[in-house]
Amino acid sequence: MSTSPSTSSAATPSQTVGPFFGYALPYAAGPEVVPPWRPDAIQVRGRVLDGAGEPVPDALLEIWQPDGDGAIPRRPGGLVRDGHGFSGFGRCGTDAAGGYRFSTVKPGASGGGAPYIAVLVFARGLLKPVATRLYFPEDEAAHAGDPLLAEVPAERRATLVAEREGEREYRFDIRLQGEGETVFLAF
Fold it and tell me: What sign does the dihedral 27-162-107-111 (CA atoms) show?
């Protein structure tokens, strides 16, 4: 029996954290901030991409937002939903193509800025989630007076604005790094 170190060239894990989001964090009603059948429901969808433009199939997104009048929900119910109301919170894992989809309402303005949805992205290789915002293209006039957007260089603001894809559907792709990287916020 030899006691010399192994000369095997077995691969070691390429990441030290995750992916581990498949158990308990995503839940069936997670992407439905409101049921999709509601007349005021909108669909927000997109993809999470890495620095090479490849999909991130094991990311987890959370959204937080006020209701259509700009009021922030202050009652329990983010996880246990009645199937009719607005919870203000959603959670969705990405699929094999890095895709996600939420059913929600377009938020009203809150705090003097333009309407937005707060987005947290949890993904492999990130020790902490990254935070960003999703703004709406039809609120361009309000964007000019938004305190956060005023701090973002003009050439990067487009990474925070969703694309309208229909009467009630928006696309918001999130690029974690590289060319066209989404603006992320530090807290």
Answer: positive
pTM (predicted TM-score): 0.84
Distance CA(156)–CA(22), nearest Å, equals 32
Architecture field, domain 41-175: Sandwich (2.60)
Please check whether residue 150 is in contact with residue 142, taking contact to mean a CB–CB distance below 8 angstroms. Answer: no
List all residues 6 or more positions away from 164 whose beta carbon is below 8 Å from its beta carbon. Answer: 136, 137, 138, 170
**Residue-wise DSSP of 57-111:** TT-EEEEE---TTSPPP-SS-SSS--SSS--SEEEEE--TTSEEEEEEEPPPP-T
**Domains of the chain by residue range:** 41-175
3-state secondary structure of 148: helix
Side chain identity, residue 49: L
Helix then strand then coil, % of the chain, to nearest 5: 10, 30, 60
- The answer for residues whose C-beta is within 8 angstroms of residue 73's C-beta and 6 or more apart is 66, 67, 86, 87, 88, 89
Q: In this structure, which long-range contacts are made by residues 51-54, counting pairs with CB atoms below 8 Å and at least 24 apart in sequence?
A: 51/175, 51/176, 51/177, 51/178, 51/181, 52/178, 53/175, 53/178, 54/98
- Could you give the CA distance from residue 148 to residue 144 in angstroms, rounded to a whole number? 10
Average confidence (pLDDT) per 10 residues, the chain, 187 residues: 54 52 68 92 97 94 94 66 75 96 95 94 90 97 95 96 96 96 93
